[in-house]
């Protein structure tokens, strides 16, 4: 059963469900990657970020090395540590492989 719902700005939505229930199809429709037929022609304009369930790493380095490589001037700053690293508990992951 499908029910109408609302999305608000800056809201994070997680879709969970059994295999083959249409989660990926719905995301593809919302992102515009899959076009609907004429029956469903009106979709609201929104910015959507899709995060895949599994990510294939492009690097075999550690979190520390990746941060140093990608944002060398940012991650050592106290504000970045306070606003990002501490809330996400990244410090304890620094020596893990990416």
UniProtKB/TrEMBL annotation:
The superkingdom listed in its UniProt entry is Eukaryota
The family database entries (PANTHER family) matched by this protein are listed as: ATP-BINDING TRANSPORT PROTEIN-RELATED
The protein in question is named: ABC transporter domain-containing protein
């Amino acid at each position: 059963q499908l029910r109408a719902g609302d999305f608000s700005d800056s809201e994070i939505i997680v879709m969970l469900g059994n295999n083959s229930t249409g989660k990926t199809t719905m995301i593809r429709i919302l992102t515009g990657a899959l076009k609907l037929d004429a029956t469903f022609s009106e979709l609201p304009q929104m910015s959507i970020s899709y995060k895949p369930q599994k990510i294939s790493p492009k690097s075999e380095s550690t979190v520390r090395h990746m941060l140093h490589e990608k944002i060398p001037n940012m991650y050592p700053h106290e504000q970045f540590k306070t606003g990002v690293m501490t809330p996400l508990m990244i410090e304890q992951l620094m020596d893990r492989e990416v």
